[in-house]
């Protein structure tokens, strides 16, 4: 490292710390803070970055981004470029300046966005293997009840990105195992969407908070055809028995579908329920219609 590069790094760190010190614990009314957790994938990365940059441009100073890069993400992507395009408040890099700060920043934020969810991170989350800063922060966010939205392109073996790379020829057991990971984390509360829809989904969640005056809630989509196979229509539960047992929503898997479909091919989903990806695949392949019970 040359003397000039060292000076630039020092100046950047000083400015980052000064900027960090100016962040109040509570944002002004109407402002939203998002923690962007970047993991080391490339499929859908450009589209996701453009979506988040567009959202920042639309909302201006009313939206603040913080970014946490995993080690692999920092090696693959350019943290400075992401920081500039998203006009971030702070950039954290695992192994450099993130120690203990991920949880600190999480306390300031309204929701968490994963623009590139990799197969590795999906597997870690599904197994609750918290051996990386990204996995730990995401589980912490879910345990705090924060909405977590993830672009699943780099973790979904059936996505167009894998097909373009020639990685769509795996045996069914392998493909199913990767899809199972997505089903599990969707059950944990992660909203999985295509990268090209990331901005609109996050904007809708922010809008729901503005309307309700509470934390952003899981996304409500149209009643029959969801844009993402990993998120079926859902609303806040009105089933007292469910509310008394747990604060989490009901999860409908393939095993429960037989009891929910009638002889006319209509599946009646209880209010507040989340349908897993594999269950939705069954519904879609069978051509069943979905109605809210």
From TrEMBL:
It is an enzyme of class 3 (hydrolase). GO terms for molecular function: asparaginase activity. One of its GO terms (biological process) is amino acid metabolic process. It comes from the Bacteria. The active site is at 42. Its EC number is 3.5.1.1. InterPro entries: Asparaginase/glutaminase_AS1 (IPR020827), Flavin_trans-like (IPR036551). Belongs to the asparaginase 1 family. This is asparaginase.
């Amino acid at each position: 490292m040359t003397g000039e590069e060292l000076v630039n790094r020092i100046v950047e760190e000083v400015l980052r710390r000064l900027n960090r010190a100016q962040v109040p614990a509570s944002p002004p009314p109407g402002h939203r803070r998002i923690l962007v957790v970047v993991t080391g994938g490339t499929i859908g990365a450009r589209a996701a970055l453009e979506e988040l940059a567009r959202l920042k441009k639309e909302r201006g100073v009313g939206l603040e981004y913080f970014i946490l890069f995993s080690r692999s993400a920092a090696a693959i992507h350019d943290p400075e470029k992401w920081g500039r395009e998203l006009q971030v408040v702070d950039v954290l890099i695992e192994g450099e300046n993130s120690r203990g700060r991920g949880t600190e920043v999480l306390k300031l934020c309204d929701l968490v966005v994963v623009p590139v969810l990799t197969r590795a991170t999906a597997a870690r989350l599904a197994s609750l293997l918290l051996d990386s800063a990204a996995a730990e922060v995401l589980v912490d966010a879910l345990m705090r009840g924060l909405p977590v939205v993830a672009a699943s392109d780099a973790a979904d073996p059936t996505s167009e990105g894998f097909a373009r790379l020639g990685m769509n020829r795996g045996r069914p057991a392998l493909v199913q195992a990767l899809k199972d990971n997505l089903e599990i984390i969707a059950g944990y509360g992660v909203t999985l969407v295509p990268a090209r829809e990331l901005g609109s989904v996050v904007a809708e969640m922010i809008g729901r908070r503005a309307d309700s005056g509470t934390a952003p809630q899981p996304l409500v989509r149209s009643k029959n055809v969801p844009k993402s196979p990993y998120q079926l229509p859902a609303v806040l539960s009105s089933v007292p028995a469910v509310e008394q047992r747990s604060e989490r929503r009901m999860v409908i898997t393939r095993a429960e579908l037989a009891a929910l479909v009638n002889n006319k091919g209509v599946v009646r989903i209880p209010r507040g329920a989340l349908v897993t990806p594999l269950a939705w695949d069954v519904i879609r392949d069978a051509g069943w219609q979905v109605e809210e019970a």
